[in-house]
Amino acid sequence: MAVTKHTKQILARLDEAYGTEQICYLNHENAWQLLMATILSAQCTDARVNIVTKDLFVKYDSLEKFANADVKELEEDIRSTGFYRNKAKNMIACARRIIDEFGGEVPSSLDDLTSLAGVGRKTANVIRGNIFHDPSIVVDTHVKRISKRLGLTKHEDPYQIELDLMKELPKDHWISYNMQIITFGRQICIARSPKCEECFLADLCKVKGK
């Protein structure tokens, strides 16, 4: 795949600013903990999820405990992450399916992961990249917003953005790009007030100052 000069410049500057080390912002010790944390992270900050899972993973220290959890009690345990009713229901169903269908091991394929309750492509790709080190692109709010600003996609739909980035980015940058863009989005290209005057990608941005 031929990478454009524009893309090469973006990636080189991101690499220089943030390095290429794989970083996961959700605290976890194993695959199922990351899966549960990622389900909780929908419409919630990683910082809040990490506060909740600090106690949650002590109380529910196995998939079996999640599978057998009382839904109302789990709702209260995760209430502060928002959308707690759906999340609690999905976490229990997800744990049960992993135990019943996959022998208690979080599956690695995209199809198997997305067959789990509460798991879409974004969550599946988080698991694939961070646990199984399978090159994958996670389209979260930062990646969606900033990829458009940088002209790497024109789409709004996360799946179409994922396809565009798979074509635009070299495979060895698929995982690191997401990590870098999350940091960049939190520090500089902030959604409500981007710091364009501090941005090291300003000359490559298609909507600078907007």
TrEMBL record:
Q: Which GO terms describe its molecular function?
A: 4 iron, 4 sulfur cluster binding; class I DNA-(apurinic or apyrimidinic site) endonuclease activity; DNA binding; DNA N-glycosylase activity; metal ion binding
* InterPro entries for this protein: DNA_glycosylase (IPR011257), Endonuclease3_FeS-loop_motif (IPR003651), Endouclease-III_FeS-bd_BS (IPR004035), HhH-GPD_domain (IPR003265), HhH_base_excis_C (IPR023170), HhH_motif (IPR000445), Nth (IPR005759)
Share an example GO biological-process annotation for this protein: base-excision repair, AP site formation
Recite the UniProt cofactor note for this protein.
Binds 1 [4Fe-4S] cluster.
Q: Which reaction does it catalyse?
A: 2'-deoxyribonucleotide-(2'-deoxyribose 5'-phosphate)-2'-deoxyribonucleotide-DNA = a 3'-end 2'-deoxyribonucleotide-(2,3-dehydro-2,3-deoxyribose 5'-phosphate)-DNA + a 5'-end 5'-phospho-2'-deoxyribonucleoside-DNA + H(+)
EC assignment? 4.2.99.18
SMART domains for the chain: ENDO3c, FES
Cofactor names from the entry are: [4Fe-4S] cluster
Q: What Pfam families does its record include?
A: EndIII_4Fe-2S, HHH, HhH-GPD
Q: Where is the HhH-GPD domain?
A: 40-187
Entry keyword set? 4Fe-4S, DNA damage, DNA repair, DNA-binding, Endonuclease, Glycosidase, Hydrolase, Iron, Iron-sulfur, Lyase, Metal-binding, Nuclease
What family is this protein classified in? Belongs to the Nth/MutY family.
HAMAP family xref list: Nth (MF_00942)
Q: What does this protein do?
A: DNA repair enzyme that has both DNA N-glycosylase activity and AP-lyase activity. The DNA N-glycosylase activity releases various damaged pyrimidines from DNA by cleaving the N-glycosidic bond, leaving an AP (apurinic/apyrimidinic) site. The AP-lyase activity cleaves the phosphodiester bond 3' to the AP site by a beta-elimination, leaving a 3'-terminal unsaturated sugar and a product with a terminal 5'-phosphate.
Checking NCBIfam families in the record gives: nth
UniProt name for this protein: Endonuclease III
Q: Which organism is it from?
A: Eubacterium oxidoreducens
Supply the gene name: nth
